[in-house]
Fold these 4 entries.
Entry 1:
Amino acid sequence: MLPTSSSSSSKGRPIRPNTFFPHYLRRIVKWQQMDIEYTFWQMLHLCSAPKVVYQHTKYHKQTKNQWARDDPAFVVICSLLLSVSTIAYCAAYDYSAGHAVFVVLSVLVFHFLVAGVILATCCWFFSNNHLREETVNSHAVEQHVEWLYAFDVHCNSFFPVFVLLYVLHYFLSPLLVAHGFLPVLLSNLLFMVAATYYHYLNFLGYDVLPFLERTTLLLYPIGVSFVIFPILILIGFNPSRFFLNMYFSRPL
């Protein structure tokens, strides 16, 4: 869904049938209606050339008159990949099959969906209330960021984080969970890169919207990351050990 158009008066506000979201949910169980190839193309370019993805978002707006995806394939595939990676962690660090199922569901529901809903809602609220250009003409059409587009931006930003913290981290975990300064340094650097890239992609997602201004405010959390992670390194905090100990029963 794209940022809708609404004038300052309710009379000028176009009435749209509220049928898109149910249709979006129905397509989740219909693989034949999903564009799998395009989804993997997006995932690849989000890790290598994210601006290209948002250039295609502009084309999507021009052809389908909406900013957000009308295809749930990205969410479905990302959920499946996240489940597979979590199962791999459970095979390496857990003893109980029942607990492994709990971990997979927890990561899928809370790490991806619940955290995504919270972050998307915060960005949706912030962009609509603080980043929209002020309309000088009282008769001009106002545009708003739709919540589903904000969730799309989160999903786009999350995928490289998934590659770094769920895939690459898995193969590096024997080194990262070891004791000593080097594992602490490498673990914090990996988490810092993931956090930085997430907020950079989040910025790109809102910067492409022509009716928003001051979108560089969305880059400020990157500065916070550059302050926090050196402090964590100095105090010897290892995020890899922390999260693996929190979720899995095998002692590290």
Note: Strands lie at 5-6, 142-143.
Entry 2:
Amino acid sequence: MRPILMKGHERPLTFLKYNRDGDLLFSCAKDHTPTVWSPTTATASAPTAGTTARFDAPARSVDFAIGDHLAVITTDSFMGNMPTAQVKRIAEDLQDQTDESALVISGITGRINRAVWGPGNRTIITAGEDATIRIWDSETGKLLKESGMEEGHQKAISSLSKSADWSHFLTAMGCKNTDPDKDICHGATVNAVDISPTLDHVVIGGGQDAMNVTMTDRRAGKFEAKFFHKILQEEIGGVKGHFGPINALAFNPDGRSFSSGGEDGYVRLHHFDPEYFNIKM
């Protein structure tokens, strides 16, 4: 599986997302320059003018509802503003777009790293630094359920990915529990996860903290994407290449390739070999 290296950012990657057709890949980085890639030609361009929303704080993640007329966007705490998850209506005509939020979810302590829509757009699921997963009513903003420390994470949740049929989701944190009957373990801090849309596979990635990268050998830093069977929780294999922690992962919606984004500023596009689809566990 020979990767295609795509260099379009000057600073570490933070987020990767394919469109529903899988023919566009969007990347975000700390250089404040969103980039649109063609997975077919590996060429990049700046996003064209489109629907925008303005916030009083940095935006961290976005997820689109069924129908693409709503988006839930998380914002960080900044200059006295608390972290929020905000629902925005997406106008078909750019001239009709407003900054008004249809719903604002607040009152959470710590950064909200991810927010995604639940089945049928009826709920919103949030996860972040306080190690708690919460399910909210997407119409009223009422908190419906939240995980406790005894049944969930012990450390900050860095990533959340939902399955293609929206029946379940996967979360990630720095791997502390080594019990193979309970957790899929990377062996290092986990920054990103994603679920295959076609197979019972998941990919997780991370590595040693970015602040220690210059003192770490690439092999010891665990800067690789690891694949596991999500039911059996057995490791399938790994893909190396990044020279720093992996911060973002995304399967193409067709399940035939995936992309990774790292602290090194590179997006690596990987097309699976035919043998990958015939793996027997």
Note: The radius of gyration is 18 Å.
Entry 3:
Amino acid sequence: MVMECISTSKNVVKFFLNHSHVLTMFRSQAKLNLLKITKIRFASHHIMLQRLLICKDELAITVILDKWTEWLKRGDEKTKRMGGLVAETILDNEYWDDVRNIIKITEPLYKLIRFADGEDSKMGEMYEKINNMFGQIKETMAGSKFEYKWDRMEAIILVRWEKINIPIHVLAFAVTPHYYDPQYLTMLAPDGLPCKPPNQDIEVAKKVMIVFGKIAETAEKARVYHEQFAHFHMRKGMFTKEHVRLDSYHSYVVTWWSTYGAETPELADH
């Protein structure tokens, strides 16, 4: 049903963009252009549907114009058939309900992709944002007509997640300072429970230990990593300072560690 709605939407956009007279009629009503799917543009289905929904009223006005009807009568059989289907789609409230639902469901994924597309390193923050994305999508699908598809969607996302959920990424999450800040910990996760610091997540803690074991050349070096990680997340020494805490929200993670990591040099270097 989702792919059917997307396919139908692509046909609507294609019909308008491939017929200059129809496009001129639409543009006389609208301030924005329709957007077609491009293979090189991330989340292009989501973007296309968003623009269609924004232009919903202008599309509806276009297909009830006398000029539309007259133009369609002069077309060949294929154009008449396709034009009729396009008009029927645009005037179908159920179709627009599907468009709205799909946009809501894909919005968390779209925002995640935009976040990852930025210039700075996002390794640590990606772990938390992907976890949140799961909850947001599940919450959006609950009670919608697409609720029955959650299990399949979850399986697809988990396959992708397993490919990037390697221990070093988890370590990056565990040493991102603002995830230990009281401001963050007062926020609610998508499941409605308070956020918790990374060191209190069993899965995170296990993978952090795995990374320390792999990057440490000796048992002594591994012990140093463990001690410095505890020094960091328990906020000892320099990490007790208020300006250090505040900077965790406003500084790039690498810059923060470069500035305040002198007491934990081995951890800061990684």
Note: DSSP finds 16 helices and no strands in the chain.
Entry 4:
Amino acid sequence: MVQDSNNDSKTKRKRKRSKEKKSTEKVITNEEQKQKQQQQQQQGNGSNPSGKKKKSQEFCPFGNYRNYYGYRISNDMDEDPRLKVLKKEWFQDKDCLDIGCNSGVMTIHIAKKFGCSSILGVDIDSSLIEVARWRLRNFVRTHSSTKTDEKKTGADGETKIGSEETKDLFQVVTFQKENFVQTRNLDENRYDTILCLSVTKWVHLNWGDDGLITLFSKIWRLLNPGGIFVVEPQPWKSYEKNRRVSETTAMNYRNIVLRPEHFQNILLDKIGFRTVEDLTSSLSGASKGFDRQVLAFQK
């Protein structure tokens, strides 16, 4: 009987310790949950211990800015100033490629203004490609609804719908996610006109001089004989501003030998383009920081 009593006493003490332990663990768990919730609320409210608001910075190592055209085109502009220096004969009934198309604004406007047979916009950022596809759908829907009431009478007396001007842009404009420097998906394609507008710096910073030469060589190879390459290189001072967006860009910046002022000679003497035309003098109305040289090379 004494032994049974001792066993009962030990069992009660174990149960008591177990309850105390669970209670302690529960208190700790609750405390941790409270701290976690407070941290989440601070992050959600954008607060920090110092009470100062941190300015959020967009991380765009490839120049894949979400609001790029918001920076580029001011409110008093009806269209991108670069459209005014492009020649219709480079695009009308031509197969075209827009490298680094971002959200597709320029791509769509070129197709609409100049009447491309086809134009493919490629960008390294899949989310921007989705925005470009949405923008295309929205553009077609908006312009179709505005034109359906504008009826035209042809020479044969037949009534024609004005929305024909859109020429079903869905069949003309396409967007595709590609890293142009590295992809092999476009190797079999051929184009009459290729655009590379404000892209060379990002290729250069991320893949160095070798990447830049690959870019130029690939463009030359994809162009049909007599084809046009329109390029808008960023100046060297622009490289310095963005050299620290990643470790890769910082390293490549230090090793770059081929400066933007050398591009014209590289494209003519090393890549093999026959002629070059400087379109910059006709360019007017560009926003501050975007008044860049625009060159057109012929294969």
Note: The CA atoms of residues 58 and 65 lie 8 Å apart.
